[in-house]
Specification:
CATH class: Alpha Beta
Structural class: alpha+beta
Helix content: 25-40%
Strand content: 15-25%
Number of domains: 1
Number of helices: 10
CATH topology: Beta-lactamase
CATH architecture: 3-Layer(aba) Sandwich
Order of helices and strands: HHEEEEHHEHHHEEEEHEEHEEEEH
Distance between the termini: 44 Å
Largest sheet: 7 strands, antiparallel
Strand order of the largest sheet: 3-2-1-15-14-13-12
Number of strands: 15
């Protein structure tokens, strides 16, 4: 099964073209709730979590529908969704914590920090940390990723083993045509899931800790993200069930993971992710904890490759220029997610759905604009 490319740089272009210019603004919580329920019915979304925040204040929070249809289990705020590519914002923050600690500079060659070398075939240009964080490394998502889905369990393949064997000549999963793009590192922009997974390997090799443990100790625990997990086997409670919509029926998808999990395998709640994203609205601080330095937050939310794509920060994207919304979206088998915030207003919105074909762009815009009116 092919990996879903779970990201749209300009997701609001379609939104802008399709929106009703004469639509009345949503002013009240009741109006927003009614609008979201209508969208759930129209788009056949079994469960929808929505949270609008301003800094550390929750302006609106809603959990509608069923976390599991067959069990008639209603969604609650403590039920984690698979986040898909929205997970990459956590992966980037883990690496940037090491940057803040002086472990590397963004334009360093990653080969100085790995115990194996990664090079685009035929190129002598070193791949840097900044290139990984802006999807300009030249590392591509080859077909080897398709065989790395595991249903009902975590992947038994170690992350560093897979990445080394995917990126180094002679490796079990190496294919120089499929696993790399045909451009010099830094000279073009192509979204890369596997490049994001390599970020996690760098976190492991620089810190000397597993990526999972690093995130628990440096991000989840200090921010109070108690319902956030990288590993399927660590979740004791309910997980929101992913679904495909096939004709008039919902098709349940068994809970799954993939070997390159740091690019899209996080499970979390809207409330937990609010605790994470509010740090970007508060100069790097959330729950009294300095997640990132103010200067680093500013760098994340600054276009890094304007000559190639003016919407690209460091694993964050300018998703709506008019509303100045920075964020990330995601899509995988049976899930769709989106979040964005405005650094000037410090208002943001998070929407999570358990139906892979759901289009959340318009809902996000409506939720954000509701926040502006409060």
């Amino acid at each position: 099964m092919s990996r879903v490319i779970c990201f749209s740089i300009a997701c609001f272009i379609l939104l802008t073209l399709g929106c009703k210019k004469d639509k009345e603004p949503i002013n009240t919580k009741e109006e927003l709730e009614s609008y979201l329920l209508e969208e759930m019915e129209t788009q056949n979304i079994p469960a929808l979590a929505t949270l609008v925040f301003k800094e550390d204040k929750v302006l609106f929070e809603s959990y509608e529908g069923h976390a599991n249809i067959d069990d008639n289990l209603l969604l609650s705020g403590s039920h984690p969704f698979l986040l898909a590519s929205m997970s990459k914002t956590i992966t980037a923050a883990a690496l940037l914590r090491l940057f803040d600690q002086g472990e590397f500079v963004l334009d360093d060659s990653i080969n100085n920090y790995l115990d194996f070398d990664v090079n685009v075939p035929g190129s002598e240009t070193p791949i840097t940390f900044r290139m990984l964080l802006t999807h300009t490394s030249g590392i591509a998502d080859g077909s080897a990723l398709d065989g790395q889905y595991y249903y009902g369990k975590d992947s038994p393949v170690e992350l560093d083993y897979f990445l080394e064997n995917y990126l180094v000549p002679g490796g079990e999963y190496y294919d120089k045509k499929e696993n790399f793009h045909d451009f010099e590192p830094g000279e073009d922009h192509e979204y890369s899931n596997i490049g994001s997974a390599l970020i996690a390997v760098l976190v492991e090799q620089i810190s000397g800790r597993s990526f999972n443990d690093f995130c628990k100790e440096e991000i989840f625990a200090p921010l109070g993200m108690t319902n956030t997990f990288w590993r399927l086997g660590e979740i004791d409670g309910v997980i929101v069930q992913p679904y495909n919509r096939v004709l008039t029926k919902y098709e349940e998808i068994e809970h799954y993971t993939f070997t390159d999990y740091p690019n899209g395998g996080l499970r979390s709640t809207a409330y937990d992710m609010h605790r994470f994203f509010q740090a970007y609205c508060n100069d790097g601080v959330s729950n009294g904890y300095v997640l990132l330095k103010p200067k680093t937050v500013k760098t994340v939310l600054t276009p890094q490759i304007p000559d190639l794509d003016a919407t690209v920060g460091l694993h964050m994207f300018l998703m709506d220029e008019d509303l100045e919304l920075w964020g990330h979206d995601g899509g995988e088998q049976g899930v769709a997610t989106i979040m964005a915030f405005n650094k000037s207003t410090n208002i943001g919105a998070i929407i999570l759905a358990n139906q892979g074909d759901a289009n959340l762009d318009e809902m996000l815009k409506e939720a954000y604009e509701f926040g502006e009116l409060q």
